[in-house]
User: Which sequence fits this backbone?
């Protein structure tokens, strides 16, 4: 329907600032759009990839149906093993938070599983983190505190009753 216009390569630094500003203003759709424009010119721009991943995870709360899959698709494109592990944790943590915010029957145990999966990713990231980078520890602690604050428990396994003769 429309042919999208390209931005100038020289405009990328300002466009990245604008995308981050839109994210901070709670407008992840706009931030995502800017990242798509940047990535059309520089497909391996790590900052744009991370900003887009974060924008997608911020849309979990609105029920975006394909945002998780698209965010996960960005992971292999990130420059370092640490970033791949860390941002995999972010995806899981934000899925858990969005689920917890929405509530509903059974949301607590499922959110618990998302937070535990995030914590496992953060532990992997911590093992390969750059010196003086404690971001994975901070995120791990946040997940642990959310689990404790909301008294989240793992799902209870249902067993078939055994009939006695």
Assistant:
């Amino acid at each position: 329907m429309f042919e999208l216009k390209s931005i100038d390569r020289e405009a990328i630094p300002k466009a990245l600032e604008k995308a981050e500003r839109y994210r901070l203003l709670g407008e992840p759709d706009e931030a995502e759009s800017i990242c798509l424009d940047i990535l059309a010119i520089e497909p391996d721009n790590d900052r744009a990839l991370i900003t887009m991943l974060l924008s997608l995870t911020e849309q979990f709360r609105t029920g975006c149906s394909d945002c998780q899959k698209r965010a996960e698709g960005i992971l292999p494109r990130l420059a370092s093993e640490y970033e791949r592990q860390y941002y995999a944790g972010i995806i899981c943590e934000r899925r858990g938070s969005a689920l917890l915010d929405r509530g509903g029957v059974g949301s607590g145990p499922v959110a618990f599983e998302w937070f535990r999966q995030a914590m496992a990713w953060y532990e992997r990231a911590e093992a390969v983190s750059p010196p003086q980078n404690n971001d994975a520890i901070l995120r791990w602690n946040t997940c642990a505190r959310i689990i404790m604050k909301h008294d989240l428990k793992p799902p209870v396994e249902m067993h078939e009753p055994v009939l006695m003769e």
The domain at 80-153 is CATH 1.20.58 (Methane Monooxygenase Hydroxylase; Chain G, domain 1). The chain has two domains: 1-67, 80-153. The mean pLDDT is 94. The first helix runs from residue 12 to 24.
